[in-house]
Write a structure and sequence with these properties.
Number of strands: 0
Structural class: mainly alpha
Order of helices and strands: HHHHHHH
Largest sheet: none
Number of helices: 7
Shape: globular
Strand content: under 5%
Length: 194
């Protein structure tokens, strides 16, 4: 048989296996778009075979991932708050801890991104409401602090490279404090009923 025909048949077989199977259990309605892409009936984790076999196993995995997310988030929030405190000292002329501020950058950023990944990649919950609740606000705030954490390292690097040192420092500080504020508010929301 021709190689092109074999490749075409293999593609259709793969496509049929990956996209034709249906789940034996229903998924919740109103899932966030990223959850649909990752965990929907034809989501990435299902197509690749990474998803657990049963919904109970998915929910157990979700619980574990979100509990780890909470622990890592608390540690990253506290270390980021400390790093912000040191950064404010630098802005006020106390350069005693400049090396510590720089050394904290990678561990704080990595802990934050690890925590965010645990939440982002977790399986879907039991249900999702259309109404605005504390968890939905928590998720919306995550877009702000994720964006801030994504750009802060570049802004920090830009301080040393900038022609306008004062403006580069102010921008870095504003983004860092806004990020810390949105992280803090997001953390407080987790204690409210939803």
């Amino acid at each position: 048989m021709n190689d092109k025909i074999k490749l075409t048949l293999l593609f259709f077989l793969f496509f049929n296996v990956c996209f034709s199977s249906e789940l034996s259990y229903p998924l919740p309605k109103n899932m966030p778009i990223h959850t649909k892409i990752l965990w929907g009936e034809k989501g990435f984790f299902r197509v690749t075979g990474i998803a657990p076999e049963s919904r109970i196993d998915e929910l157990k995995l979700r619980t574990s991932m979100l509990q780890l997310h909470q622990k890592f988030a608390l540690i990253s929030w506290a270390s980021f708050a400390y790093q912000s405190f040191i950064g404010n000292q630098l802005v006020n002329g106390n350069y005693e801890n400049i090396d510590l501020h720089k050394k904290l950058s990678i561990p704080v950023w990595s802990m934050y991104m690890g925590s965010a990944s645990l939440s982002y990649f977790s399986p879907p919950g039991l249900k999702y409401s259309k109404k605005l609740d504390s968890m939905k606000l928590h998720r919306l705030l995550s877009y702000f602090h994720f964006s801030g954490m994504a750009i802060i390292p570049f802004l920090g690097y830009n301080i040393a490279q900038s022609n306008n040192y004062e403006e580069a420092v102010k921008l870095h500080q504003r983004v860092a404090l806004t990020t810390l504020f949105s992280m803090s508010l997001s953390a407080i929301l987790t204690f409210l009923p939803y």
